[in-house]
UniProtKB/TrEMBL annotation:
It comes from Streptomyces melanosporofaciens. This is DNA-binding response regulator, NarL/FixJ family, contains REC and HTH domains. One of its GO terms (molecular function) is DNA binding. Residues 157-222 form the HTH luxR-type domain. The lineage of its organism: Bacteria, Bacillati, Actinomycetota, Actinomycetes, Kitasatosporales. GO terms for biological process: phosphorelay signal transduction system; regulation of DNA-templated transcription.
Length: 226
């Protein structure tokens, strides 16, 4: 069965400096129906190939020669902000997790995860859902709450907050509460595609790049408590 994204095979790139691990992950993804369009074994190679191949999801190790994974993430997302990045790392250190999220990763999975957990994480990452190994999600949310509590820089020429529709605000509030797109669709009795459209529209209006930034924006405005 082919993994689909927007009606076509879902494309994935795997970056890891250990050839056996990299090949095994790529093989598991290909056997599950993903289209593995590229692999890379070091940071600079990862940046070049990700820009050339344009995958839907980048499965990225953090510990890379030549350029650290967080820098790869920043560089690739600067070129292709619509790309989803799932970090697959041996490290569960809080600092590594937060650094990865701040660099733009939308998910963080430990290498101790099962093949099924990895496949599910890649699918959910492609759909825009934040995916974290159990125990790490609370850490990330807590960090964004802390950041939201810090005073924001004020500027006299700060642009007015873009106007969201009532439905977009409703979807944003549920995103901030940690619901998946599927759960939001069921809650609002609308299609999964409609939820995605509302989120994409909201990202565009707010000039944000991914769902993690969207959650932070919502928490800053107290929407998760509404």
């Amino acid at each position: 069965m082919t993994a689909q994204h927007d009606g076509r095979p879902m494309t994935v790139m795997v970056v890891d400096d250990h050839p056996m691990w990299r090949d095994a992950v790529a093989r598991d993804l290909a056997e599950a129906g993903f289209d593995v369009v590229a692999t890379a074994g070091d940071g600079p190679q990862a940046v070049r190939r990700a820009k050339a191949a344009g995958p839907d999801v980048l499965v990225l190790d953090l510990n890379l020669p030549g350029l650290p994974g967080v820098e790869v993430c920043k560089e690739v997302l600067a070129d292709r902000p619509e790309l989803r990045v799932l970090v697959l790392s041996a490290s569960g250190e809080h600092g590594d997790v937060l650094e990865a999220v701040k660099s733009g990763a939308t998910g963080y999975l430990l290498k101790s995860a099962s093949t099924e957990e990895l496949l599910d994480a890649v699918r959910r990452t492609a759909a825009g859902d934040p995916v974290f190994t159990p125990g790490l999600a609370g850490l990330v949310l807590g960090e964004y709450r802390r950041l939201a509590g810090e005073p924001a820089p004020t500027a006299a020429d700060q642009p007015a907050v873009p106007q969201l529709t009532e439905r977009e605000t409703e979807v944003l509030r549920l995103v901030a509460k940690g619901l998946s797109y599927k759960q939001i669709a069921e809650r609002l009795v609308i299609s999964h595609r409609t939820v995605q459209n509302h989120v994409q529209n909201t990202l565009g209006k707010l000039q944000l790049h991914n769902r993690v930034e969207l959650v932070r924006y919502a928490i800053e405005r107290g929407l998760d408590d509404a």
